[in-house]
Specification:
By secondary structure, this protein is α+β, with helices and mostly antiparallel strands. Helix content is 31%, strand content 12%.
């Protein structure tokens, strides 16, 4: 790995602190993350959409000075539209869906926090399973033991974080889809209280209030900082 070799020594807050101190640049961090996706994703199949240029363009345009400025971030292929990016929900039925014209409010808040979105992660079809093996993309493997599942439905996000591609990744949870992958992959996985994070402007609630959005992270402080940036 040539881009910022100490990348894996830090959680998301640690990387953001290095950016604020000008010890590294967001470009350094993004290229370090891309190197790890390219090296490790063929084994675990966590990232199903590589949006590298999307991330590079966001940096060139100027990142907000949020609490997580410059930290590379992956979005689950479910629940949170991102402007200019498609979302297939892990389903062949939605494989040809056009890119979203706008960000969801949740995605907009992630961007305002300074995160650099550069890919989408695998999920079971429509998020309706506690495994992660859609026909559309094939199964995601657990980085700790490739014969085992990372669980679901946020299995791609959990595998990407556990494989140290990123320190945190978007996830959602209706019936355990954050908590089960976090448990299987040794991560922090919090399901926020109903309506703590918004589904606006596309829906009032997910699954009648059962489903919520948040993340899987390396550290408790990353999870807390991310929720501080997105809630309300």
């Amino acid at each position: 790995m040539s881009a910022f070799e100490d990348y894996e020594a830090y959680d998301g807050m640690g990387l953001a602190a290095l950016v604020r101190q000008k010890a590294v640049t967001p470009e350094d961090l993004l290229e370090a993350a891309i190197e790890r996706v390219e090296a490790r994703n063929p084994t675990v199949n966590a990232v199903v959409m590589k949006l590298y240029d999307h991330g590079r363009q966001a940096i060139r345009a100027g990142l907000p000075e949020g609490p997580l400025q410059g930290v590379p971030f992956l979005m689950k292929d479910l629940t949170s539209p991102v402007a200019g990016v498609a979302m297939t929900r892990g389903s062949r039925f939605f494989a040809d869906t056009s890119p979203s014209p706008i960000d969801s409010e949740h995605a907009a808040r992630l961007k305002r926090a300074g995160l650099v979105i550069f890919g989408r992660t695998n999920t079971c079809e429509l998020g309706l399973s506690l495994t992660c093996e859609p026909r559309q993309y094939g199964p995601t493997r657990n980085p700790w033991d490739l014969s085992r599942t990372p669980a679901g439905s946020s299995g791609g996000s959990a595998a990407a974080v556990a494989a140290r591609m990123v320190p945190m990744a978007h996830a959602s949870d209706g019936f355990g889809s954050i908590r089960a992958p976090a448990a299987c992959c040794g991560l922090v996985g919090l399901k926020p209280t109903r309506n703590r994070n918004t589904f606006a402007p596309f829906a009032g609630e997910g699954l009648g209030g059962v489903s919520t959005e948040h993340a899987v992270t390396l550290s408790v402080r990353d999870s807390a900082a991310l929720l501080d940036a997105t809630h309300g």
